[in-house]
Amino acid sequence: MLTEYCVIDAKHPDKFILAQAADVLIRGGLVAFPTETVYGLGANGLDSAAVARIFSAKGRPADNPLILHIAEIRDVKELARHVPANAKKLMNKYWPGPLTLVLERTQAVPDAVSCGLNTVAIRLPESLVARGLIRMAGVPVAAPSANTSGRPSPTTAQDVLVDLNGKINMVLDAGPCDIGVESTVVDCTTPVPTLLRPGGVTLEMLRATLGEIEVAPALGDAEDAVRSPGMKYTHYAPAAQMILVEGEYPAAAAVIGDQIAKAQAEGKRVGAVVSAETKLPPGVVAAVYGSRNNPEEIAANLYNALRVFDGEAVDVILAESIPETGLGLAVMNRLRKAAGYRIIKA
Ligand code: AMP
Ligand code: MG
By the 8 A CB rule, do 301 and 180 touch? Predict the structure, then answer.
């Protein structure tokens, strides 16, 4: 298949290009498009055959449900059986934006989207390209990140093409995404809403709005504890094995230095994902994700940093951790997954 590539203005998207992309969706095709979080791979969310194409283009595990993207708050009605007061509060405060809500689903939601769960995940994105496309298509748009399953999520159209060129019908290029990590996912079907995945709407913001919020149990270990199917998969990962060093700075930076020296002494080629403040010895393939003091900057650069190792034959990658406040919680969640939970505590 030939993948059509279209540049589109992020702030003033061209209606003709949006109409063309919407037409591809309506005909059952796949369109990669920008959102404020990462690039999404969209299909008509009411068309099971189109949704199945997302799973095969990405190589996505069949039990990992998709988020439905809508253009207006009123579009929730068709998809959710019941909208609890807490969910309404969150919608009014954070939509449009990087927040996904899990609600009880209606029969309108295909099994292909919810993977047999009786719930559906819904988001109203802020990106004008995304909203314009969804509005023109006139249907909810199912859209996971537009990467090959398990690889770092795409934050540019070029990243999308590296993974999916020839496997999708179209990609819209509106430049790099603002936030750089996926949406926050909150389960609103529990008596107290539960944070399933940290993201652009931070835990601090949710707590301020809701008063009370639960955080889903630690990831990576107890399979039973996994509430969101996507949580159990290794994700966002570069090709080489990555080890995350957790702990206070600068002690953790010293441990990274020791680990690098050890690996190099064993003749290994070493990569490192670190902050701008950390000095690396010679010979290390470096991916700098930004200043330690700026979690927004780190979130925006994170996946790009992980893709630095794509063309590099490194044997091992060491990664620096950051404090888990604000967007730092989302960054650390992605780093732990990218490391497949190989963690050294400094
Ligand atoms: P992605 O779009 O690939 O970044 O991931 C969407 C995330 O939302 C995954 O972690 C899914 O497991 C999660 N998700 C989607 N639908 C549901 C649902 N009905 N209940 C719980 N989690 C969901
Ligand atoms: Mg994804």
Answer: yes
Domains of the chain (ranges; CATH) run: 4-215 (3.90.870.10), 241-345 (3.40.50.11030)
Other Cβ atoms within 10 Å of 261 Cβ, number: 12
Could you tell me which of 300, 51, 53 has the C-alpha nearest to residue 168? 53
Q: H or E stretch including 159?
A: helix 157-164
Q: Which residue out of 197, 232, 234 has the highest number of ligand 1 atoms within 8 Å of its CB and is therefore the one to mutate?
A: 197
**How far apart are the C-alpha atoms of 127 and 116, rounded to whole Å?**
29
Output the ligand 1 site: residues, CB below 6 A.
Answer: 64-65, 67, 102, 114, 117, 119-121, 144-145, 182, 185, 196-197, 228-231
Residue nearest to atom 22 of ligand 1 (CA): 228
Q: Give dist(CA 134, CA 272) in Å, integer.
A: 39
Length of the chain: 346
Bridge partners of 103?
A: 120
Residues with CB under 5 A from ligand 2 (ion): 144-145
Measured by CA distance, the residue closest to atom 9 of ligand 1 is 230
Q: For the segment 167-195, what is each residue's pLDDT rounded down to a tens digit?
A: 999 999 999 999 999 999 999 999 999 99
* Ligand 1: residue whose CA is nearest its atom 23: 228
Burial grade of 267 (CB within 10 A; 0-12, 13-18, 19 or more): exposed
Q: pTM higher than 0.90, yes or no?
A: yes
